Amino acid sequence: MQDATRSPHFDKVIHANSHTVVHLNCKRFDKSPYFDKWATEATIFGIYNTRLYPVSFGEDVIRHYWKLRGGIMLYDVPEKPISIKGPDAIRLLERALTRRISDLKVWKARYAVACTPQGGIIMDGVVIRLAEDHFWYIQANGAFEHWLNLLSDGMDVTVSDPQSRVLQVQGPKALEFLERACPGQMPEKFGYFNAGLFSFNGMEAVVSRTGFTGEMGIEIYGNPANDPSKFWDYIMEVGQAFDLEMGAGGSMTLRRVEAGILDYDMDINPGTTPFDAGLAALVEFDQPNFVGREALLKADRRPRLFGLTCATGIPRVGTVVLEADAPVARMTIGDWSPTLEKGIGYVLFDQPEHQEGPWVGRRLQIRTPDGVTHDADIVALPFFDPEKNIPRGLAQAPA
Length: 399
Known about the structure:
By secondary structure, this protein is α+β, with helices and mostly antiparallel strands.
């Protein structure tokens, strides 16, 4: 089953699921502890970190998108926290990641990537410091726990899975929701990329001011000591005052693409360096021991990943980008932007620059599956709000 929602501004069908759908036995995959609260026969699942997650409920994706923009939405996501604890926790993280971790304060968070010895991105995620010698790395898709264990040889550190399933409450009313759910517990300064330990009606959980939507939001890291049914019911009970609904992947994806948020395995992978992806700021060469450092010192530092807009077509995943009818790039992700009212996506070029200069500002073409060629413009990412004022709570997305 596919979700298909027609934009009132564009005579094309928008699919939340654009890939082949198959039946799958979930024996080797993990179901969410909240699975029975939302799964139906209409649910289409994806697999990420060996975890099932909802790609589609057959929902109205555009309606959920506007609720995310104007209120709050709930998402049960397959991100996976990994615990790194012990005297050598910092040493291990600064070996695995390209950023400094030693100066991260307790209950602060930081986005960081890990690289292969060849300089390709092997993982991205958010580090949260829970104590002086205890961190969580909220990883994207992949077996990163094994990689950390391999790098920890000779170190006094324990790498483990805290068995946490993440719920995201995203939208401009997310902090109002948190205050209602955990009255009197909000720190005086609970800013963007802050974290804390909260009690949800007696059930403790770590919460961070982060998310995957470019909106103001929180992530709630489920505690296996809590009864998941009671925890879910409490979230939904508090959420009634906000008309809280659970969304699937479609509305979240629309918003994350607008916000320039990258998805591991789709937009970045071991074939792309942080420089290719425009993540040069995450590579801190004053860190002497991180994996991939020597390769990145020699790497081309010009980016290859940019934004693309198209007023007359949607640049779907894998769509070839053309210049003078010759392929020069491909789309890693693409969809219709309800806010910008045009097709948008990320374009990964074969070469970092055109022979006459940068790609940004150039008009190229895409050819959609129906064989029609459309003009498309190359732009810098993100498509709007480059200062991240929206998730900081300082601005709203353009109407």
